[in-house]
Amino acid sequence: MATSEAVLQVLGCSLPSLYGSDNSFRKLGSSHTSKSFIRYRKKRGSKYVNFLNWSNTSYRAIRVDHFLSTRRPLHGRSVKCKCQQADSASSIASEKENGAWFVDNDQSFDTVHGNTPIVLQFETVREVKVGEKECFQSNGSLPPNGSVQDDLNRIAGNSIEDEAWELLRESMVYYCGSPIGTIAAKDPNSSAANVLNYDHVFIRDFIPSGIAFLLKGEYDIVRNFILHTLQLQSWEKTMDCHSPGQGLMPASFKVRTVPLDGDDSATEEVLDPDFGEAAIGRVAPVDSGLWWIILLRAYGKSSGDLSVQERIDVQTGIKMILRLCLADGFDMFPTLLVTDGSCMIDRRMGIHGHPLEIQLEALFHSALLCAREMLTPEDGSADLIRALNNRLVALSFHIREYYWIDMKKLNEIYRYKTEEYSYDAVNKFNIYPDQISPWLVEWMPSKGGYLIGNLQPAHMDFRFFSLGNLWSIVCSLTTDDQSHAILDLIEAKWTDLVADMPFKICYPALEGQEWQIITGCDPKNTPWSYHNGGAWPTLLWQLAVASIKMNRPEIAAKAVEVAEKRIARDKWPEYYDTKKARFIGKQARLFQTWSIAGYLVAKLLLANPSAANILVTQEDSELLNAFSCAISSNPRRKKRGPKSSQKTYIV
Predict the structure, then answer these.
(1) 20 to 30 Å CA-CA from 393: which of 43, 407, 567, 607?
(2) 529 versus 282: which is more confidently predicted?
């Protein structure tokens, strides 16, 4: 009863700031001057508030809460299981992080474990005047200007968050009775034959889900995910009698129930990983291990539990991933040489070679910094840490020097001389000025810049890839000036990169003959769709971290406001099509988990910006000094000579 009265008081203009400080929500019309009524009713176990406008007999239903529904695991717990569960981290979870209804201090109800008392089981009608200055507070005084409108907008925003949390929890997967991850999508419209692998737990897809749970103080699911995926790292993986290098993490896995050996009447749960041998295109996931390292660090910084990263098996897993990435090869560059489709863009899109968007140069740099922070000092790690430091310095210099593009750099390329044969050549990669596309000349703002998508001999991919640029800010791969310039460009090109739904995965789209040649006429990657210029709501959380790090959170807040206008109404699509993101994607799954989690992480970080520190990495003084030495030594004139006999790293 007390709770319902509090809600009525809010809606009656007496508690204008009860829901928090963020008022970047969809604005309800304020032009109505007729009397309206607020009616509470129960529908299918949830509560709604109906705003009935008697002047036009229409109403708007706004979801108020989801906390009455009790949480039940998706999988039955009667299954016989022989697996050893990951150690419980329940003792680490802070009770104060349990979700609460409306209030910020999280003291009233526990929405996670279902012990919220049933309230609002009656119908109450209270008269208010929406949008009128005559709306009085309970004490008879006039409320602050717009307080009613702000309260209603906050209720609308909270209702979207409540729905998102409910959907995220419904996507949870259980293994041996414990949560282990979230499936990629739970689209009720997908038939069993059309599910493909969207019922798997993907490493990269779980990252925003894991961050959301960490920010809510729910650590067990992240800990279980980290330790069980680590076990899968050592599995044998072959395709056509060939095995990749040790240390490869799976792209995804699925919990399957199989008959127990020797007893057909009993069953057990097993994890069935996919390392790319079953994926469309048969491409190994290069980014999975890097995301795993980043999540491991975030878990330790969020929970305070460093015992996980200090475990021998976890330390071994980190080293195996690093050995795979740092192995010597034929390449002259410090960037990773990878095939097309080995990251979030998992189809042929012309990003083979040394792509920024493999998230690799950005993710690779981030993972190296995280691993450097977590590796325990011991004799066996000395060579590895030395090689890691050398690679960090070389990678930072290479990306900042050769991948950065702004109006000044564009003019330099335009005046490049070609076919330079010398050790001090300016045009090191023999880039032909005619490669500068007409769209880029018109598109590049006078203030702002970005990291190009790819760099290879005689080839620069000038497309703007969002994830690579945003994560370069997060992991300090770019300088402060470059980071601000990227955000300046996003603001200047808002109508191209955000438009009706954030955020374009790349810009511009491949069209015409270029689309035919580069994608192979891929019917899913048609222009302005899917990975070819589609808009992906999950990128909201990377935008939020990058904006907060540079002390410009208003950029992310504005993008969240755009998303809130339709993402819940559209049923949380995987991606959006068309140049302005007007349509739900042609083949987009609905209720896509990382679209849901990306929105939640953005909201949580905007409400508590300091929490972004679990993801942000900074260069320390040692690396900065080494980087300064690399610049001052002028690599163009570096003396050549025999390689030092000292072996810095043995694979």
Answers:
(1) 407
(2) 529
